[in-house]
């Protein structure tokens, strides 16, 4: 072994003093420079922390204001839609003794309030309209009097009926927001299901302040407001308030009130001031909303800010002292360590390798001999790599095509290069082609692993020969049944290269099918320029290969034909409802027709990605399973034991096969319901006709009334009646009423108005029009004609 001290040059002691002093001074200077900067920042930390707290509060309040303004615009839009509805203006002016008042109010709820409810988000908890005439409350899905509404539906925890009616409904409000209060949503059940709400009230009509004919009330979900507050509270330990123009606290995160001295200082669009609150210095930040005239206020105790500052100062001082002591020690330690840097390098070399050759005169000579020996070892390693190059080349190509290797950086940091792998690109234009073997049973009925190896060999050689006939191709096995080709083009125009890709794929497909009876799917990427884009071309080819579920075997899929496909499918809730109704009604023809329409609209009319295609079939099978669960149908008796419809559908190779199997499953289920419901349909038909005969005199008799009575949807009742009676339900009711009127004409001398009321018409005009439409003459002429006979 070499003696390291014997290798060191002379005059070590004289140089050691200079190096030591220089290193210690240098390290101490480097150490003190950032520490000096740290001292300066240490003095500035308090102002920085306070300014950060101010900016953070202002930014969060501004975010709260923007969020609340957006939500309040929704309230304003809803209020305007209701307030300026001409139907509401008509109801406000109705006499409470008007016989049709109740019906018109129900119509308003049905035609407008129910529809408005579907437009609002969860921020609007609910809304209703109070009509002074009749003391009526109208809300989505409901018409009731004020007393019943307060007792049964919505009651404020801290407000009696009379107080609520006087302050909320009897007092004039102009876009008024009332402070947050606890609302009991089900007063007669359990704890009443309490909820915090902010109430918006507007007296009606809007432009007439002399008399109050009604009130619009919108209840805002206080829980969502509190959620917005909590986001700010968790960030800066502050309390949040919303204060209106009258200095009332509309909502707060703590439930407490703000002092008058604070609310009086809330002026201007935004601001910041400090105030003593409850014996604590507090930082108060506010911003104003023009949307509702509110101020959003944040109250943060200064203790929470200064506590962090104090902690940071203590920590900074401790770190400074520790860093100074540790830095001085480290500086000295590193100074001494610089005496023997070469010695450590030599020791590291000696630990893994004995010295060969002539003795080295010093450490530098020893390191030089070691490097020369490493070069000799590298040449030996290259020779061994060359002997194993086929396997390494295949692995290299596989990683190159997948994009795991950047060709522009190959060979750096000791890795293999393109040259060492025997790869020479002739241009920077590339494409990737993936060949997926789909069916080889004609070549080998029961393929083994050896058969698959032979298939990959055939595909690789044929593809390489075709590619090399015009340009340059490299083949690599990717999976058991998949081979990828990297095509590198000669310097040609892009149009000529694309034409070659099309011809390559078509020729390749014909050869494999005609000569070897191998069914394949070929996926072709688009052209890419640049060595670093090979991985992108591979990803494109893989994406195109996914579309084999639509094209099937012996197909060619170009990425350029599928990249512009729309990323959505069409299966609305109306289609699902129709599908459920047709299945439960045993209508096999309409079930098959609807499934075909869904398939055509998604797979033929517009493009579809494979992922969305599978999602569509998953949703359709989910509907199938919903019907089974809702009707308590025995799965095993219908489908067989251990049958999973989802796995069965997704086991199909193409979308056409998925559609056929889906229709077969639905046909089984529909046939079951058809058998069960044939007798029920006749009974339901008779019950509907009997119900119509009993209620002919009711003005409200119609499709909606019949559907409500039988607990079914109007669409189902309409289609069922038309299918069973060969006419729609409205025509049947009209015919029944006219026949009854004709019978009454023969028995008495009733006027047309009396006849209209007796057969369920609101007035004689509608009756005469319906009579003439069916009989061809007016009731009077019919009466004369009948008496003449």
Low-confidence stretches: 1-17
Q: Kindly report the average pLDDT value.
A: 79
User: Structural class, from secondary structure content?
Assistant: alpha+beta
Largest β-sheet summary: 7 strands, antiparallel
Question: How far from one another are the termini?
Answer: 142 Å
Strand content: 15-25%
Identify the overall geometry. flat
Helix content: 55-70%
Strand order of the largest sheet: 3-2-1-7-6-5-4
Number of strands: 18
Number of helical elements: 29
Summarize the structure.
The chain has 29 helices and 18 strands.
Sequence-ordered SSE layout with sheet pairings:
Elements: H1 4-7, H2 12-83, H3 86-92, H4 101-117, E1 124-131, E2 136-139, E3 142-145, H5 146-152, E4 155-156, H6 161-169, E5 176-184, E6 194-204, E7 214-221, H7 222-236, E8 239-243, E9 249-252, H8 260-263, E10 270-277, E11 280-289, E12 294-301, H9 302-337, H10 341-352, H11 363-387, H12 389-402, E13 429-439, H13 449-468, E14 472-479, E15 482-488, H14 494-516, E16 519-524, E17 528-529, H15 534-545, H16 548-551, E18 555-558, H17 559-562, H18 573-584, H19 588-604, H20 610-630, H21 635-639, H22 645-650, H23 655-694, H24 703-710, H25 714-725, H26 729-747, H27 752-758, H28 764-775, H29 779-788
Parallel strand pairs: 16-18
Antiparallel strand pairs: 1-2, 1-7, 2-3, 4-5, 5-6, 6-7, 8-9, 8-12, 10-11, 11-12, 13-15, 13-16, 13-17, 14-15
Helix pairs in contact: 2-7, 2-9, 10-11, 13-14, 18-19, 18-20, 19-23, 20-23, 23-25, 24-25, 27-28
